[in-house]
Write a structure and sequence with these properties.
Elements lengths: L1 H17 L1 E15 L2 E2 L2 E2 L3 E15 L4 E16 L2 E21 L2 E20 L2 E22 L4 E7 L2 E13 L5 E15 L3 E10 L1
Antiparallel strand pairs: 1-4, 1-12, 2-3, 4-5, 5-6, 6-7, 7-8, 8-9, 8-10, 9-12, 10-11
Length: about 210
């Protein structure tokens, strides 16, 4: 029994000697263009540019495997004729990280993320703001990334979420012209490999203790 306990302690010590905690953050820029054709009448396109910030906290058990969580908040706006659309985004993303390639100061990794988030759209005309759409999101996605080590403490990271690989569900609640919900909803689910009209480029850094 003593040998089993001693062996377990040696293994745990070896694991935690290699372990590293890190903190960081990233800035994301997203662009989305929307258009609708209703009864052969094409509405004016709306383009939305959004800026997001995501603090990040993680723990690497060794050079290959780690876990972490990031929190995101973002704001965006767009124009459609005389109307201005204001967007607020939020998300919480726990993840599992696996480093696939480690060459000198460059690492190529993949995050498996479990995402919960939402979006609130408000429409503004002549200074009057009205609720328009409320969106709830849930997803499990596989996202590749690149990490470059500047020194033993600081690293730069980059993720390009242009390709979706995983499962995502989005539920939209619509509001009427007066800004009250009329209980109309739309639920979208997708699974697999897809290319979106929304492209997010996230560039960030981490500090390793």
């Amino acid at each position: 029994m003593k040998k089993v306990i001693l062996t377990s302690l040696i293994i745990l010590s070896a694991v935690f000697c290699q372990a590293q905690m890190y903190i960081g953050g990233s800035i994301g820029v997203g662009y989305q263009k929307q258009s609708e054709d209703l009864k052969l009448t094409k509405t004016e396109d709306i383009s939305i540019l959004a800026l997001t910030f995501e603090p990040n906290l993680g723990y690497m058990f060794n050079d290959r495997v780690g876990i972490g969580i990031d929190f995101g908040i973002g704001f965006g706006n767009g124009k459609q004729g005389d109307f201005t659309t204001n967007v607020m985004l939020w998300n919480v993303n726990p993840y599992f990280r696996w480093v696939a390639i480690d060459i000198a100061d460059l690492k190529i990794y993949a995050d498996t993320k479990f995402s919960i988030g939402g979006e609130q759209d408000k429409e503004e005309l002549n200074g009057v703001k009205t609720d328009r759409n409320k969106i709830q999101n849930f997803g499990i996605n596989f996202i590749p990334g690149i990490l470059y080590e500047i020194n033993e403490h600081f690293s730069l990271t980059a993720q390009l979420n242009v390709l979706g690989l995983g499962y995502n569900m989005s539920k939209t609640t619509f509001y009427n012209e007066e800004g009250y919900t009329d209980e109309d909803t739309r639920t979208i689910q997708d699974f697999g490999f897809a290319f979106n009209g929304k492209t997010d480029l996230n560039i960030g850094f981490i500090y390793i203790f």
